[in-house]
Design brief:
The complex is a heterodimer. By secondary structure, chain A is of the alpha/beta class. Chain A is globular. In chain A, helix 6 crosses helix 10 and helix 13 crosses helix 14. Chain A starts with 9 loop residues before the first helix and ends with a helix. In chain A, 44% of the residues lie in helices and 13% in strands. Chain A contains 18 helices and 13 strands. In chain A, the strands form three sheets. Chain A has a seven-stranded mixed β-sheet, with helices on both faces. In chain A, strands 5-4-3-6 form a four-stranded parallel β-sheet, with helices on both faces. In chain A, strands 11-12 form a two-stranded parallel sheet. By secondary structure, chain B is mainly beta. In chain B, 9% of the residues lie in helices and 39% in strands. Chain B is built from two helices and six strands, in the order E-E-H-E-E-E-E-H. In chain B, the strands form two sheets. A four-stranded antiparallel beta barrel of chain B has the order 2-3-5-6. Chain B has a two-stranded antiparallel ribbon with strand order 1-4. Chain B is flat, with a radius of gyration of 20 Å. The mean pLDDT of chain B is 95. Classes of the chains: A alpha/beta, B mainly beta.
Chain lengths: 469, 93
């Protein structure tokens, strides 16, 4: 059909999703799909055709990977100063800001760009208001591919979130066309139209390529911790939004044989703020790594721009920590002043949870914060706090537990006030089950569906059956 | 600042992609009232004035139509007004 006669309404474009995805990815998802909910996950992941060695080689060639793992000695000591006797695990951080484009997202983008180039696509497109957009633009630049990044940037007053304004700049710096959009989930409608009109590769965050690219991160952590400390990490903390960071890192750790390391998700608590709300948009001081993405993506991964999502966080998650905005800003400043490292919000979210975990863990244990990201104008915590003030948020010093997302940000006075909050994992699993039943009524489930859901929840079939009763 | 731009000037345009009634059915009340809007930058194809309907070519050579909104757009995001509460963190004692 020509562009002239094609129906470009919201409903019509959305209905063409599967055919657009097939053309823009070169993956036919119908090969893996077994029922409205179940699919052959491992076969889909294997379908990329890349081994972990291949991925590491592609990344090495594209200025990605082999990032340093630092011990945060001063922060560890600061935690030990108030942790109980024998408590205070060593905190390590994987400095992913060292990747081209300044975040771990380059690991995902590098594989998509390699694949797009290999398959002969002229360019690639991605919908991302965060680091991933910059990563795709950077990798496209290296491979001589054209690039379009779609971002949700501004509210109806045309006021842009400062962090996303910086991402627009970064993407344009790498030579990408940046489509800056107002608030709304129609970002995916515009992505579909863009893919259809350009014939570009869909550098989705949720393809097997996108997730395989993160597996090297888990593998490197395992190797670096073993080499330096002669043991496996006891816990790895992962900032969680869409689920790819957690899924890929955990799969890499498992591939390295680290099956005892506790996989801890962490998100900034933004409870009560609506992610598609024009007025709430600029009342958030975090653009990702928050519960507005973390919870819905954990409890139903298949809500994305590809028919089946390769990022399935509950498959790998042992624990889910929540932190407040004020706690993350405090720890960000502390990282700068105590460790001489100025880094951005994404990694510092899991660093904040690591403070809580280290306090509870034994001194001879190791907790790894598995990413950092760059910071700068717009992204910097000082800008986020001043912007919050401009938008009527009450910013003050005190007990972070008193903060209310969208109304107040309370910066702790002391490190021992950084305590986070644990989410109930079974509540998340029950919420997943509700979504699964919505997608496929339970009376139609066969053994394959039960087995798939059990694996997706890191539980057995008996648990799923008991929970459904 | 001039309201008129010559052909070839780097500009920013705006286009309404979806009117309020054409938007996704699953939106909160406040968002539902607003049009879904795109802004994109590129090289102006014919001389024009702010507010004119124009054509641009983006940096990768794609044509976009829309209303001319900004001539010579630039970045102005910053580190913001000082937040004194941050200054003393980590340097006590």
């Amino acid at each position: 059909m020509s562009a002239v006669t094609r129906d470009m309404s919201f409903a019509a474009v959305t209905a063409r999703k599967n055919e657009i995805m097939k053309a823009s990815l070169g993956i036919d998802f119908t090969d893996f799909i077994q029922s409205p909910i179940a699919f052959d996950y491992e076969r889909m992941m294997g379908e990329t055709g890349y081994s972990l060695d291949d991925i590491a080689r592609i990344q090495f060639d594209s200025k990605v990977g082999n990032t340093p793992l630092f011990e945060l000695k001063n922060l560890t000591e600061a935690v030990r100063a108030f942790a109980g006797p024998g408590k205070g695990a060593t905190i390590l951080v994987k400095d992913e800001a060292a990747n081209a484009s300044g975040s771990f997202k380059a690991r995902r983008a590098s594989i998509s760009a390699f694949e797009a180039h290999k398959k002969g696509y002229k360019g690639m497109a991605a919908a991302s208001s965060g680091n991933y957009g910059a990563a795709v633009a950077s990798q496209a630049a290296m491979r001589g591919l054209k690039c379009i990044i779609l971002q949700e940037v501004f509210d109806s007053r045309y006021v842009g979130q400062p962090e996303i304004l910086e991402k627009s700049r970064a993407c344009e710096a790498y030579g990408a066309e940046v489509q800056r959009l107002s608030v709304g989930p129609e970002l995916f409608y515009q992505l579909l139209m863009t893919l259809e009109n350009t014939g570009f590769f869909n550098a989705s965050l949720y393809t097997p390529f996108g997730i395989k690219g993160v597996e090297t991160l888990g593998l490197e952590i395992a190797e670096q911790v073993r080499t330096r400390y002669g043991k496996d990490p006891d816990a790895v903390v992962i900032t969680h939004a869409g689920g790819g960071n957690l899924t890929g890192t955990a799969r890499g750790l498992l591939a390295a044989g680290c099956d005892k390391s506790r996989i801890v998700a962490c998100s900034v608590d933004l409870a009560g703020l609506h992610m598609a709300s024009d007025t709430d948009f600029n009342r958030k001081s975090f653009t990702t790594g928050h519960t507005g993405f973390g919870v819905p993506f954990a409890t139903w991964p298949d809500r994305v721009d590809v028919p089946r999502n390769a990022a399935r966080s509950l498959r790998y998650m042992d624990e889910y920590q929540l932190v407040t905005q004020g706690e993350v800003f405090y720890v960000t400043e502390l990282l700068t002043k105590l460790e001489g490292l100025e880094r951005g919000p994404a990694g510092n979210t899991s660093l904040t949870a690591a403070v809580t975990l280290a306090r509870q863990m034994d001194r001879d244990q190791i907790v790894v914060v598995q990413e950092t990201e760059y910071t700068g104008a717009g992204k910097h915590h000082n800008r986020q706090l001043s912007f919050a003030r401009e938008n009527g948020i009450d910013v003050r010093v005190g007990d972070p537990r008193e903060s209310v997302p969208g109304k107040s940000i309370v910066i702790p006075e002391r490190l021992d006030q950084v305590r986070g909050m644990v989410q109930d994992m079974d509540k998340l699993r029950m919420s997943y089950l509700k979504n699964a039943i919505k997608a496929h009524p339970v009376e139609h489930w066969n053994d394959g569906d039960y087995a798939f859901v059990a694996a997706d929840l890191k539980k057995d079939v008996a648990w799923v059956k008991a929970a459904l009763e | 600042m001039s309201k008129i731009a010559n052909k070839g000037t780097w500009v920013e345009i705006e286009r309404v992609l979806l009117k309020p009634e054409e938007r996704s059915p699953n939106l909160p009340e406040d968002t539902r009232k607003c049009p879904y809007v795109l802004r994109v930058s590129g090289f102006l194809q014919e001389a024009a004035e702010l507010g004119d309907q124009v054509k641009i070519l983006s940096i990768i050579g794609h044509e976009h139509n829309g209303v001319l909104r900004v001539i010579s757009p630039s970045y102005s995001h910053s580190f913001g007004a000082i937040v004194p509460e941050l200054l003393t963190i980590g340097i006590q004692e």
